[in-house]
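lol forgot to send this yesterday, sorry. struct tokens for the thing we talked abt
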């Protein structure tokens, strides 16, 4: 195996029968040049850059600090082991580029908040835990302080890379909808939801299933008319809030949310109310 191009000390390109491969490993290209033989003992990762924007990855490997590339690859390897699943090769582009940007902002003391962080934490629990681990590794290795939302940012990249056809917009859609519903409840009652409470987690789980059913064209939950009438009367404020959320979902998703589902939403909203924190919104 012969080196076709050196990208950095830890990455090279080879070309076999007209097909390029990107090979990575600590020091695999140190002191090497084009047409030198590859040391097999230093090969750690090898893949065919057949994904879209493969040329961008080569550019990232040649322009991004090695410490960022190394951290990105460590995180990817750790995540693949923890999740027991291979990632789409594009993760090597998206995560590396993201980390370079995040670290640059941190060093410039610029903080960009992710308003979907809580929804991402609850939606993609396994990936979020890895994201938190990754943040600790980055902060320790590079002596920087990242915003707490960075764990959610990394989690989203990991979740997206697990899909057959990665699409960040699709991965964000559910989180965005759930975030909007939470903010509608907070606005209606003028209070902040405690997102770590069990009652909110139950509401969150219920609405996640509702959104999935809507997306798949399935029937939503049914409720007995007598119980529905009681919910409307006993939990009037929660039901009005749920009606407002349902109307928004109908407009946003071009669907119909029946009164019975509004009733279930109202029950969850009512259960959340004791956990609401007083605040001025």
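and heres what i got for the seq, position by position
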């Amino acid at each position: 195996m012969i080196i076709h191009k050196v990208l950095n000390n830890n990455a090279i390109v080879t070309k076999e029968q007209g097909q390029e491969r990107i090979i990575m490993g600590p020091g695999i290209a140190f002191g090497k040049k084009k047409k030198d033989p590859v040391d097999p003992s230093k090969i750690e990762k090898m893949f065919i850059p057949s994904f879209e924007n493969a040329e961008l990855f080569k550019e990232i490997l040649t322009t991004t600090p090695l410490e960022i590339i190394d951290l990105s690859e460590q995180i990817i390897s750790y995540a693949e082991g923890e999740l027991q699943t291979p990632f789409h090769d594009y993760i090597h582009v998206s995560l590396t580029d993201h980390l370079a940007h995040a670290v640059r902002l941190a060093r410039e003391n610029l903080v960009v908040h992710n308003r979907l962080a809580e929804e991402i934490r609850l939606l993609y629990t396994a990936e979020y835990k890895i994201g938190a681990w990754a943040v600790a590794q980055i902060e320790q290795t590079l002596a920087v302080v990242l915003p707490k939302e960075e764990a959610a940012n990394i989690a989203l990249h990991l979740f997206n890379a697990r899909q057959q056809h990665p699409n960040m917009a699709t991965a964000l859609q559910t989180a965005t909808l759930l975030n909007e519903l939470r903010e509608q409840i907070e606005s209606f009652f003028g209070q902040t939801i405690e997102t770590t409470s069990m009652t909110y987690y139950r509401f969150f789980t219920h609405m996640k299933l509702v959104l999935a059913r809507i997306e798949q064209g399935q029937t939503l939950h049914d409720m007995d008319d007598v119980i529905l009438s009681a919910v409307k009367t006993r939990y009037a404020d929660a039901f009005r809030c749920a009606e407002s959320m349902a109307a928004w979902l109908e407009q946003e998703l071009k669907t119909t949310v029946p009164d019975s589902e509004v009733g279930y939403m109202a029950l969850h909203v009512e259960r959340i109310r004791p956990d609401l924190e007083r605040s001025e919104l």
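Residues 168-278 form a domain with the PTS-regulatory domain, PRD fold (CATH 1.10.1790.10). anyway ping me if u want another try
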